[in-house]
From TrEMBL:
<keyword id="KW-0547">Nucleotide-binding</keyword>
<keyword id="KW-0813">Transport</keyword>
<keyword id="KW-0762">Sugar transport</keyword>
<protein>
    <submittedName>
        <fullName>ABC-type sugar transport system ATPase subunit</fullName>
    </submittedName>
</protein>
<feature type="domain" description="ABC transporter">
    <location>
        <begin position="3"/>
        <end position="223"/>
    </location>
</feature>
<keyword id="KW-0067">ATP-binding</keyword>
Length: 223
């Protein structure tokens, strides 16, 4: 589903975290939001998720104006840097959790969660607890849980920054593979330029809340 952002602004007291941002993200595209700490990346992601409501401006998912919709109603999948898994639940139950919230029947939920786990190559880890997994495996569980509801949009906030260098490379390729296999529109926040250039169809550079550059990786340095 495509995402249209129109003149989006978010102010906190006297800080303008996002300043008149406009862009369109095409269906199935993976876009990186790149920029230094404090430039407004996370705030933009929170606005897309519905966890924040903007001071002004609009967000559309397809033809639907979602600006005033709460997070649950927008159907977004989110992945965070710290995985945010439920430590007392097994991998299977972590992945099933969003389906349980939707009151899907148990057999169907188990089937869909298992299928998603296999897509993420964690089908052999379903009975483990998060504490018994490596960082890379935990991030795979978090991605499976984010995708199991078949959301409209996948939002990733620095998902690789807690991994060591080798896993960071591996999971970068895995996220790209899965995003393309599922065919989901994705927004990927990072402060790592190389990561942004290698993973995305398009890189949006933010500076002080302003969208400074918006181009394909191969066009980035031609200006
Ligand atoms: P980034 O993700 O690029 O590091 P953020 O979106 O987190 O940037 O922050 C952008 C600016 O907004 C920063 O100046 C930050 O201090 C401020 N900010 C973010 N969230 C809040 C908040 N909840 N309350 C007040 N200021 C905030
Ligand atoms: P670790 O953190 O232990 O290195 P990874 O995050 O690299 O684990 O991978 C998670 C699990 O998925 C591992 O058990 C790994 O063997 C398995 N795995 C990774 N890539 C593939 C693949 N392409 N096909 C099948 N299994 C894979």
């Amino acid at each position: 589903m495509d995402i249209r952002i129109q003149d989006l602004t978010m102010r906190f007291d006297n800080i303008t975290a996002v300043n008149h941002l406009s862009t369109t993200i095409k269906d199935g595209e993976l876009v990186s939001l790149l920029g230094p700490s404090g430039c407004g990346k996370s705030t933009t992601l929170m606005l897309l998720s519905g966890l924040y409501k903007p001071t002004s401006g609009r967000i559309y998912f397809g033809n639907q104006n979602v600006t005033e919709l709460d997070a649950e109603k927008r159907q977004v999948g989110m992945v965070f840097q710290n995985y945010a898994l439920y430590p007392h639940l097994s991998v299977l139950k972590n992945i099933m959790f969003p389906l349980k919230m939707k009151k899907m029947n148990k057999i169907e939920a188990r089937e869909q969660a298992t299928e998603m786990a296999e897509l993420l190559h964690i089908g052999h880890l379903l009975n483990r607890k998060p504490g018994q997994l490596s960082g890379g495996q935990q991030q795979r569980v978090a991605i499976a849980r984010a995708l199991v509801k078949k959301p409209n949009v996948l939002l990733l906030d620095e998902p690789l920054s807690n991994l060591d260098a080798r896993l960071r490379l591996e999971m970068r390729e895995e996220i790209r593979r899965i995003q393309q296999e599922v065919g989901i529109t994705a927004v990927f926040v990072t402060h790592d330029q190389e990561e942004a250039l290698s993973i995305s169809d398009r890189v949006m550079i933010m500076n002080n809340g302003v969208l400074q550059q918006d181009s394909e990786p191969q066009q980035m340095y031609k200006k």
